[in-house]
Structure formats: C-alpha cells, structure tokens
Amino acid sequence: MADDLAWMSVHIKLTARLVLLKRLVEGRSTIGDIIKEKDKWLGVPADSEGLTKSRNAKHQQLDDALYLWFTDMSAHHAAINDEMLLTKARQLGEQLGITDFSYSRGYLHRFKSRRGIKRKLYEGEADSADMTAVQTGREDLQRVLQDYDPEDIFNLDETGLFYRLGPNYTLATTKVSGTKKSKDRITVALTSNATGTTKLKPFVISKVNRPRCFGKTYNPETYVRYRHNAKAWMTSELFQDWLKDFDRQMRLARRKVILLVDNAASHNQGDLQLRSVTLHFLPPNTTAHIQPMDAGIIKAFKAHYRKQLVQHYIERVEKNEEQSVNLREALHMVKTAWDRVQVSTIVNCYRHVKILPSPSTDDSDEDDDIPLSLLQYHRDEDDIPLIELQMKMRELGNSSMTAEEYVGVDEEEETGRHLNDDDIMMLVSREEIPEVADEEDDEEPSKDVTVFEASESIRILINFFEQSTSAELEKKRSYLEHLWEMKETIHCQAREPKQKKMTDFFKQ
C-alpha cells in the first residue's frame, strides 16, 4: 500500500508538470493546486490528456444525446465537422425542450474536451467498395491471426433473448410479434477465445436498472455484467466501457490479444487507447460465414438457456403456481447456460469457420457458400443441448415449435442499429419500464420433505445468500454454486417414478 501511495504521488506530480510544460505555463502554483485536488484529477479518464478543466455539462441529457449521435455517425464512417455538431446540438436541444442555452463555439469546445474528442474535423473512412468473397475474407483473417496464439484470439457477438418466452406460444412465423414481447427482451453479449479456455462473463443489457424482483440487496453482477438503457441495445458507450474493462483484464494478465467483432455501429472504439487488446472488424457481409459465435456457440447457449426455462415451467405447472420468469431468475439462467457451453463446441465452431491459420485447413469444403445458421453441427456432442431441450419440451406438452424453432425464435431480433433522433431521446431518457412484482411463495411446514419441497427450500437458501451482505464475495459465490448443483440433483431425482424423502438423498 505504501509503495502504491508513493507511486501515486510521483505520478500526480509528473503529470502536473507535463501539463504545464505542454502549455508553456510558468510558475509552480498550478502544480500545487492540482496535487491538492488529486482525488478529482485521478477520476479524469486517462485518455483525456487535452483536458485542462473539469467541468460538468449544464444540460447533461443534451451532452449525452449529442455524444450518442456523434459515436453512431462515426461508426458509420460519416465525416463530421464542428458546424454539423452545433446544428445537431440545436436540433436535439429543441427536442429536449431546452430554451435557455447558447450553442456557441465555447460550448462545442467544452463538449469535445469532456468527451475526449481531439480532432476538429472527423473524417470517416470510406466504406470499401470491394465486397470481398468469403474465402478472401478467411485468407485475410488467417494472415492477421497468424501472429496470435489461439488462446489470445477472441470473438464477441450480441444476441437478442426473449427471456420469458415458453415453447407453447402459437406463432404465425418463427418470429415473435406484439408489444409485450419487447418488454421481455434483453441483449446478451458473449465472448470467448478460440480454445474455449477463457469465457468472459455474459454482458446483459436490459430496459430496467433495478426491477422490483431484484429487491434492495441483490447484485446482478454476481452472475453477469449488467447494464441497462431504454432500448436494451448495445451502444457505443456501453461497448467502449466494456472494452476498457476487457483491456484492463488482459493487461493485468500480461496478455496481448485480438478481439474479432462485426461492423455493427455500436462496435466503435472511438478515441480509446487500448494497450493489450487489438480490435479487428470482420469483413462486411461475411459474418454469417466466418464469425465463430454464429457458427453454433450462440445456438448452444440458447439451447441450454431454454432447457432451463422449460424446466422452470414444468415445475410451476405441476405446483399450479405462477409460471412467469422474472429477470432475476433469468440472469442466473444466462450464467448457467453460458457455463454449460462445452469447450469442444467452441473449438469446433472456430475450426469450422476456418479463420485460424492452420496447415490442416481444407479450402475445398463444399459447405463454404452455405450460411452457418443453416448448417447442422458436425460433432455429435454439439447436438446434445438441442436433444435435451426437445425432451424437456415433450414433458411440458402442447408445444407448437420444434427445439430448433424455439432456439432460433429471436435470432433476427435487433441488438442495436443506426440511431435516429427518437432512439437517441429514448436512450438518454431517465425513464425505465417497470418490472411486474414477483408472486410470493408460501411455504407450508411438512413432516416428510418431498423432492419438490426440497427444491423450494434450496431456492429460499439461494435467495438468502444472494441478498446477504455479510458473506465474503468468494464464499458467497461458492455457496451459490453448490446450492444450484444441489437443485439440479433434485431435478434429476424428481424424474424418478417413486417420490422420495429428503433423507433418501444421503443413503448409499
């Protein structure tokens, strides 16, 4: 700790002198002022080297809205200059009902300083007119990736998820329609390396910050990285925030990695200075063929998720209870589903897209021109999640869908797109969609404990430890993992024809 404090003091003093030298300012009073306010200056982002004053925006929503527009336009390679920024600021200000404001050059300068925008003219790169073929895209990626070990090659992709949707909904097509379903949609971003040995915590984006089912003490970060906005979409700000954390993790692990992403507008690095992560965009219009997550990883994740969801409905139907899943329950299902995606599945998907440099790659595969979403898995073990899901759906009965249709029902759901003004207004809005309050489950004491009662008791213990603030985080996670394992064991026992007592589980 003493060494850290000493380093911090030296760092602050050196930074202060550098600021003065860069501005050719003489005198030592400014250095003293900066050191006195070290807590404030340490909170300034590291990439804001041009910042001379710490100043909050007078109209924060306008500031947020303009920055959303700027990052979205930059992601679409648009050329943006100061006049365009001021014009858009006025338009957004009118929509926000701001009348007492002067959109001056001074305001624009402060906005750019606050947001770390260093350029006066923001020239976007022209979109490539050459739409490369799938094979050319593979070859280009192989050249890029040849300098990286498979352990250090990552892919991130988002998927929409209707976290409450059961398999017994009658659908005109394989897509869900209606207004209610949008309230039950979340975005889940999944990230893994090519060997499946590093799977990052799922990134979940919801429409609400703290729904009532969270209670006062539940922390969703126990299971997932959790953020929210009015559209439940990935945005540039959310992505950049995640990217900074990922870069920090890799830096602490002393790793140099490459992150493959599609060219969605939200996947915008902006002015971030990354030290351990290289962001690389997959060629346009080829992700259906060469993105590992699209090759079956997301599909396996959704099969595992919906197997849990069907099990939940079976239990509730048998007990004649409210069937709906709340967001708190869904977050654990997301975490468990991601944990259950096998290493072999991930390795197989990276192998199948043929982007890894390997002498064994066969360039003559007859499936090259078939989108990955239309291909069947090439390994028997990768079919297991779908087979298990189909069996669960048969237990529930009255299903109008196959397991394949159930897994892909939200495949085309948007997780982000080019933002219009209405989208921007909604994203900067402080309003949230309320969550329906959970039903309370009344426990009746019983002399003989059945498997269903045991399952309910485990659920109560899970709720207790999730809301506990006294237990250490690592112990808390360990307790929860064991409890969920016990609950899964009880589910297996429940399928046996003879009802058992709780004491039967401890007999040899």
Describe this protein with a few key phrases:
globular, 6-stranded mixed β-sheet, Arc Repressor Mutant, subunit A, 6 strands, alpha/beta
How are the elements arranged and paired?
Elements: H1 2-23, H2 29-36, H3 38-42, H4 60-75, H5 82-95, H6 105-114, H7 134-145, E1 153-162, H8 180-183, E2 185-193, E3 203-206, E4 225-228, H9 236-252, E5 257-261, E6 277-281, H10 287-290, H11 297-318, H12 327-340, H13 343-353, H14 384-396, H15 403-407, H16 421-428, H17 451-467, H18 473-494
Parallel strand pairs: 1-5, 3-4, 5-6
Antiparallel strand pairs: 1-2, 2-3
In words, what does this structure look like?
The protein has 508 residues and is an alpha/beta fold. It is built from 18 helices and 6 strands. A 6-stranded mixed sheet has the order 4-3-2-1-5-6, with helices on both faces. Helix 11 packs parallel to helix 14. The chain is globular, with a radius of gyration of 26 Å. About 17% of the residues have low confidence.
Helix content: 40-55%
Proportion of residues in extended strands: 5-15%
Low-pLDDT sequence parts: 20-29, 38-54, 120-131, 170-182, 360-380, 435-447
Task: Return the CATH topology of the largest domain.
Answer: Nucleotidyltransferase, domain 5
Number of strands: 6
CATH architecture of the largest domain: 2-Layer Sandwich
Q: Measured on Cα atoms, how large is the radius of gyration?
A: 26 Å
Described by the principal axes of the CA atoms, the overall outline is: globular
Strand order of the largest sheet: 4-3-2-1-5-6
Query: Strand-and-helix sequence, N→C?
Result: HHHHHHHEHEEEHEEHHHHHHHHH
CATH superfamily of the largest domain: Ribonuclease H-like superfamily/Ribonuclease H
Q: How does the helix and strand content classify structurally?
A: alpha/beta
**Overall structural domain count:** 4
Can you give the mean pLDDT?
73
Please count the helical segments.
18
Largest sheet: 6 strands, mixed
CATH class (first level) name of the largest domain:
Alpha Beta
